[in-house]
Amino acid sequence: MGWTMRLATAALFLGLTMAVPGDEEDSDPCVYEALSDSDAVLCKGLKVFYPELGNLGCMVVPECNNYRQKITSWTEPIVKFPGALDCCLSNPPQLLKTSSPCACGAGGAVHVSVPGAAPAPLPDTGARDMEKTNPSPAHNRHLIMGATYILVMVDPDAPSRSSPKAQFWRHWLVTDIKGTDIRKGKIQGQELSPYQPPSPPPKSGFHRYQFFVYLQQEKSISLLPKENKTRGSWKMDKFLSRFHLSEPEASTQFMTQYYQDSQKLQPGEGSSEPKDKPKRR
Predict the structure, then answer these.
(1) Lowest-confidence segment of 67-81, 100-114, 239-253 by average pLDDT
(2) According to the UniProt entry, which residue ranges have a biased composition of type Basic and acidic residues (predicted)?
(3) Residue 55 contacts by C-beta under 8 Å, 6 or more apart in sequence?
(4) Structural domains in the chain?
(5) In this structure, are residues 246 and 81 in contact, taking their beta carbons and an 8 Å threshold?
(6) How many angstroms separate the CA atoms of 112 and 184, rounded?
(7) Residue 249 and residue 215 in contact, taking contact as beta carbons nearer than 8 Å
């Protein structure tokens, strides 16, 4: 009877010991939490890197190390679009038969494929091999050297997700970004709206911070005087329509909330060194 009791006690102790790590991980404020499936739909081909955190695409900013406070003062992140093009092969907009205005890529020679004729190679421009079949005449095609992009960062949940009266708050807007640059994470171009860090108001819940990259169609992109007066309540759809921008080439988002609304406040406010390294589940 004594041995039986001791074995039962040992088994119970072992079970409790094995259960503790799982409970700790569930409550660990330094574990990355992925976005829900519905929010993750936006995450396509774009990477956004912040100091100490790495790529935040499709993630919730962790509570640990005061990250939710730090991100409100960090400078602009490194944004990488690995699928960016070096050049663009396009027809005049009115002749396009598909939603994509261009077809080309990075590395190699560019080819044009015309029905009933062998593909005709164009001079090597540093763009990857490309073939496009289009019923439009070959002379209507134009090789646009140096494809450029537009980067947009917005908060659709201003002032809160439940009452987004000021959506889309414009946090960052840069045009004329070379494909070769954004592939490497260099955001160099015309900054129409300087970077403004995420700054969700107190008691407003979690905010989504969304990044979009568009292939630039117009040579000159600008904001209207009334758009320059304020960042809030930006009519993003009208801006996109004005410059013939439809679907983004890539996009992503992350979520965070006001740091004092977090369940667990972290010690060492203002510390530049992380006490714990964030872990991915």
Answers:
(1) 100-114
(2) 272-281
(3) 47, 48, 49
(4) 44-82+148-266 (3.90.280.10), 85-146 (no CATH)
(5) no
(6) 28
(7) yes
